[in-house]
Amino acid sequence: MTDQRDEGSMPERNPTLFDVAKAAGVSKSAASRALLRQSDVNGQTAERVREAARQLGYVPNGAARSLVERRSGIVGAHVRDVSSPFYGIVLSGMQAQAAADDVSVVSTSGSWDLDVDQESRLLKTLITLRADAIVVCSSTFPTPYLVPFLKRIPMVLCGWPEDDDRFSGCFIDEEDGAHQIADRIIDLGHRSVAIVRPPPSRSRSQARRMETIRQRLLTSHSVVREVDGGDRRVAMHDIVNLARERRVTVVMCPTNDTALEIIDVLRSSNLAVPEDVSVTGFDTVGPLGTPSLGISSFTVPAAEVGRRALAMALERIDNPDQPPQRLLLNGNLRIGSSAAAPPASGRRG
Fold this sequence. Notes:
Blueprint: H1 17-24, H2 28-35, H3 43-56, H4 62-69, E1 74-79, H5 85-100, E2 104-109, H6 116-128, E3 133-137, E4 155-159, E5 168-172, H7 174-188, E6 192-197, H8 204-218, E7 223-228, H9 232-244, E8 250-252, H10 256-268, E9 278-280, E10 297-299, H11 302-318, E11 326-329, E12 332-334
Parallel strand pairs: 1-2, 1-3, 3-4, 4-5, 5-11, 6-7, 6-8, 8-9
Antiparallel strand pairs: 10-12
């Protein structure tokens, strides 16, 4: 049987640099310099080479390229859980910056069910891929697990603040955000407050922000009741009882998705938001920030954090001996319909 193929179909083997050079009508060395974007190649020639590479589906040999350049052109990114809107948008910001700088991002993602040892194995995967630098965005990854790798590879933290000054990082000013939303609740007149506090083992950043909110509320002589967020079923039951008995006039949550879940539970229990009890969230990103949901919250620049962290990692590749740098980015208060002045019958108990 005759093997029939279209002459223009791609070869079954991986195209080589020689194939690209032949298709572009240049020497192999000229094709190599064009793909490396070296300045000694004529602009039209370089464009012709890149177009030939695109049409052929040429992919450079990463191992050979790293031997020549002593770089892989890869930045590793580890995020806590890409299914979370915050982490997904942070990763998108990294990808956008990587595209602008002509490097690639290879990412790993944990999940809320993984423990630290399992996350550590994912991080080591990025190291075995010979990434030139690694950006870590995880609210549960203790920095002591990262210290052994600091002298081997540039490493940048991003997302929520870390206290370890051995690391460079780009963070959201979470303390400012906690103060802003607490002050909003104080200004509305609430003095009987429930805060949902997750265990630090689930999220150090969420536990820290709720402690900052608690401390701020106490300056206004508020009565603050803590609801353990470790068991969501029990937490929801406790919140409904506190609201129904009018022992609190507002419930403050560590995230917007928690706030949305609580709003649904309260309404299904015939409690109106905010007429009977107000609800606030935190870390507004993506669809959870839509005005139609109306969650009073703190908006965070997730994409910008990812972009800046990636840029910081690339800078540390070029200047590995520079001192650690830390950058804080500000968010802003989002005033929604889920929080209003307390009902007149609200009382401290």
